[in-house]
Amino acid sequence: MIHLLLQASSESPGQAALSTSVPLSPADFWMPEGASTVAPQVDFAFQFVAWISYFFFVLVIGLMVYFAIKYRQKGREVYARGPAHHTMLELGWTIIPTILCVFMFWFGFRGFIDLSTPPQNAYQIDVTGQKWFWNFRYPTGATSADSNLYVPVGRPVKLVMRSEDVLHAVFIPAFRVKKDVVPGRHATLWFQTDHVTEGWDETDPSKQEFHHLFCAEYCGKDHSKMYAKVFVLPQADFDLWLDKQGRWMDELKGDELWQVAGPKLYGRCASCHTLNGGSSTGPTWQGLWARVSGGAGADGKLDNGRATYASLIGPGKEFENPESYVRNSILNPGAHIAVPFGNVMPTFKGQLSDKAIDAIMGMMKNLDQFDAKGKFIGGTPAK
Ligand code: HEC
Ligand SMILES: [Cu+2]
Question: Of 3, 247, 284, 373, whose CB neighbour count within 10 A is largest?
Fold first, then answer.
């Protein structure tokens, strides 16, 4: 195992990985299968410390139990006088642990340095965390439409991360990387993986393998839903995918817009809005279009009861039509607060284009054609 460590630390991990691909490290009781170039180093450090701890735990507890039985007093009120001093023993229990600790520190520190210095040629993805989802922006300016993280295989990837609100953390267990995302600061994290996630097929997401990306810092009510999938694609597929992110909505015609784009975009809203009347952080979208267009629920209260949907929306009122109200709710969520909810919806200004908002509104208007999870069931869309 030591050769592995020496080898890994003699070159920078980025270089090492470009020349030879780093194999997957096996899963064990504590960790899932490791898929990044730093995984072998991290696992070695972890296993080394863990096994030393197991060894000394058994040794110390074992001796303690053994001595307790062997030297028990059996009712005699005599106290044996133990040796006061044993130089070899004392040197032994000082020097051996010192060597072990220095060794742990040395490779722990090396690993830490490697993990904190992204290679120069790393591919940068900007990440923003907000309650309760992740947003990934690529160098072309495109963002990942379904809020999952897509990365190219076999080259270093650097995440430059910031938070829109509270403290979050990015944790990708398979890559053995984790970093806090602190409001008001930029944090970086990098990794390289030499293994694609198999089964890549854009038309059927259920077949794809993926790694997990968790938020690892408790950030409020729906912290556990702050989750993304990580897909690792061959460079050519990645380029195609990226190209599509910029213009994926352009290709959609007519009703395809809300049938195809609606559910994808809803991924960013799902942590707070249900489609089936269930309660959540924000109002359900079930019946939303009816209440904003003067139908059932139009008397629902807003702004602590000072307004209703009917008093805000309609010709000559603040919002000429339901579309203007919904659009404003997405871009400027603090303007009117639906009772009994709080002002916690983040703005999507700069993140959702007009076309994307049209797609979402199309979905809201045709909600009966979607199941509770946002899957389109009202017929088969062309694509
Ligand atoms: C962090 C939770 C959260 C997320 C994420 C979120 N919303 Fe909201 N949303 C709310 C809350 C809370 C309200 C009610 C308070 C208010 O009106 O601002 C609301 C209100 C709304 C309303 C007005 C509903 C009504 O009945 O008046 C619309 C429309 C809306 N959200 C659309 C969206 C869309 C579209 C997305 C995704 C692109 C989204 N929201 C994401 C929390 C969220
Ligand atoms: Cu979080």
Answer: 284
